[in-house]
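NADH dehydrogenase [ubiquinone] 1 beta subcomplex subunit 10, pasting as requested.
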Amino acid sequence: MAGKLETFAYSNDTGFAVSSSVAILAHDSSVKNGSINLIRLQHPKFKKLVYFHISEDGGVFEVLRFHENCRSWFVDDYVYSSYLSDCCIYCCTSAYLDGDLLILSRIHPLYLVLPSICEMPQNYRQPFGQMVECVTERCSILEKNELLRSGIDKVCDNFVLPDDNMRVYSFNEVKCVDWLAENVEILKARFIEKKMLHHSILTNEKSLNCYAVDVLSEYLCEKLSNLLHQRYKITSEEKAELHKVVTHVGGEISDPTENYCETSTKKSKTFEQNMATGETLAERYKREDKEISKAFWEVLDINSRGTILLRFKYYVWRMLDIPATWMKENVVDPLQKDRKIPFYHRRFNRVRTIDECAVDDRVCYEEAQMQFHLDKMVDGYILDILRNRMQRCREYYINKAEYKCAKCIDDFEQAELNFYIKYGDMGYYGDVLTAYTKQKHRMIWERRHPEIMAARAEAREEHKRQMELGNYDPSFWKRKDPRLYKDYVISIFTPYNFSSFLRFKRDEPSQDPKFYKEREEARQKGEYKEAANPNLIWP
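Structure tokens follow.
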């Protein structure tokens, strides 16, 4: 019984067919008489019914679905890439989600009948109509397909019965493997010509053979696929090694190009190890969480033994934890896994900075302006992360935070100082030109006062050395203006040196260029004395 063909009107003016719920974009070579025919046939490998398109010249096209979340292909008024010229876009408002792309991929019709032919007994002979009956019963057009009729001789031996003058065919396994090997060589030549694969695969004969055979095996049954692998002597170890190389070269996840911290190298090594074992980062984090939770309950179990109150608390906690854990692992996690919201880490290419723009180049100025605001936003997020990390550390250690959180506090103070140097004193509406002018004046000031910059660098190095020795001095970062005061302790009784503000003194190391020179001369004469702390009651 012939299958039902779905035909849609085709417009040569716009290049795509339109119906009430379906839009198709197809190349003219696959559409001769202005119609596109879709029929469901059995896939040669998966044994499932999939859509195929049969053109007037006998070409068979498989309808491949390419799905990418949150992606739209604009057809009317054209917004699509040039590589879609040989493709078909099929968008169905009821059956497919936004972002689905269906592509017409040409295949040889012989692949559709190979699964049934190779199951024939040895030396069993059949006429052409019976050999291709598995396909023609759903699509009678293929019975007259010249490409299929000429291709059947490449995998079968043909005989002519003397009595009936009828031509019959018998499957020849050797001829079939030879024909498949020819297709593998054609596929390899196309890979090399178009440079579709990574250089490490194209230059390695074994890897290229394995890759081409795997691509062709997508349309072969298991028996023919194994014979083709034996023909090229491809072992399971070589296949696994190729998959490891392909995952490393063309993996979907990649580390950012910027090095935001010193541990990025360690993270990348850990990421490569996870990819080599086939474990994703999400799976690794989930496994580590389970191990930590299991260790926590084991420790709690051991500590509660021998004490009635602690043992009772342990059982109560377990009664609350077991159903919650079961609910999360068996209900919540599977639902979230199937309904993941895609996250895109978009990488913006750097544009020219404001100092590279001409005076009258407005486009360059706007690009630099957007780049400045983007950098400010990213730096602000980094500063917030460091601030939250410091606050959590102080809340956790409380009285021990002064030496336990020294690294977190110092990192935040250094990042906040750098943020203020780059974006401070410009207000909310500060633009890239203001920042460039501020940077210019700062560089001029630093060049005019090298002794101050040298003293600051020396003080910074001394502060680092003291931190390495375990002596952290939080006053190194304190401001002399109480309006900018931040001790991160909410208390009005926190001791602070207000003397410089109350006596209207300036911040000598930062604002007085003669301070270091006079101090050095006084030290040489033996007249220099350290300023006493005005908050001291007893000397």
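Note for the archive: The longest helix spans residues 362-397.
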